[in-house]
Amino acid sequence: MNLHGIDLNLLVALNILLKEKSVTQAADYLGITQPAMSNALKRLRQQFDDPLLVRTSEGMRATDRAKELEPKVRELILHVEQVVQPVQDFEPKTSDRFFRIAVSDYAESTVIPELLTFLRKEAPNIALDIMTPSDVSYHDVEQGHIDFVINRFDMLPDSFHQTVLRRDSFTCMFCKSNPIKDNFNLESYLQAKHVWVSKTGMGVGVGVNRTDVQRLGWVDAALDKLGKKRKIMVFTRHYQAAMLMAEQKDLVLTIPSRAAKLQQNNSNLIFAEPPFDIPDIELTMAWSPLLHHNPGHRWLRRAVAQVAQNEL
């Protein structure tokens, strides 16, 4: 294939077409008309001598040739964007750069306040747009639309860069008027009523399946290994709300210790180690290879890592 005959814009269109499996949606994503996208698909079919996308009763389906091309084209686009991205010096004291980050509620509560204190001193004009993992997709991060995401992940795309910011243990919280305080052990823990709180992964969340122990997370998976199950009465995705619920006299909350420390001066609460072993969790920061070498991005990543590793 003669390189002089290749239009890189066509490869960009192919990348989106194979991701969206729809001419209309691909056109909307790239901000062009549907006829223009249809023409691009026609030229791509001629270029590769393959239909690439075939209409079926279930919508557009990729051909075997298209499936073979998809990871190669995606990688090529990422490399091209890295090559053409301008290198700019970054001066924290004067920069007014706007960073968009997605963080779990746990990370937002335990990392962002300290980060803001650091930024006010070292980079006072930097602004942050703090989003939740439910607001974004892996594609948003991969394309560099989101600077980075901080959360606990079961898995991440291979193309992402990532680093573990810290590990955290677990703490139980309950009201001083909760009868469990007089005999806190595994048996009383299992008899008590509990608040569940978690938000891992990315994308739009769905309701909890109470019978899917593994998806319920660390605490319930640890109990399951003991052949035990707790009585969860409230499911929430917000740690701050969960800690308020812990003040009710009949509820027990088990959360990462860094989050529990935010309530350490609350005289209405008792803090205790869980009466069974729960593996530590890892808080991870992930970002696109497109931003990996960007000077400002590197600086902020180092700042986040420094803040996250400090003791509260």
Question: Would you kindly provide a written description of the structure presented here, covering whatever features stand out?
Answer:
With 312 residues, the protein is α/β, with parallel strands linked by helices. The protein has 3 domains: 3-82, Arc Repressor Mutant, subunit A (Orthogonal Bundle); 98-167 and 282-309, 3-Layer(aba) Sandwich (D-Maltodextrin-Binding Protein, domain 2), CATH 3.40.190; 170-279, D-Maltodextrin-Binding Protein, domain 2 (3-Layer(aba) Sandwich). Helix content is 39%, strand content 21%. The chain contains 13 helices and 12 strands. The chain has helices spanning 8-20, 23-30, 34-48, 64-84, 105-110, 112-122, 138-142, 186-191, 213-216, 218-225, 239-245, 257-260, 295-309, and strands spanning 53-56, 59-62, 98-103, 127-131, 148-151, 161-168, 170-175, 193-197, 231-236, 251-256, 269-272, 281-287. The strands form 3 sheets. A 5-stranded mixed β-sheet has the order 4-3-5-12-6. A 5-stranded mixed β-sheet has the order 9-8-10-7-11. Strands 1-2 form a two-stranded antiparallel ribbon. Strand 1 (53-56) and strand 2 form a beta hairpin. Helix 1 packs across helix 3 (34-48), helix 1 (8-20) crosses helix 4 and helix 6 (112-122) crosses helix 13. The longest helix is centred in the N-terminal third of the chain and has 21 residues, at 64-84. The radius of gyration is 24 Å and the shape is globular. The termini are far apart.
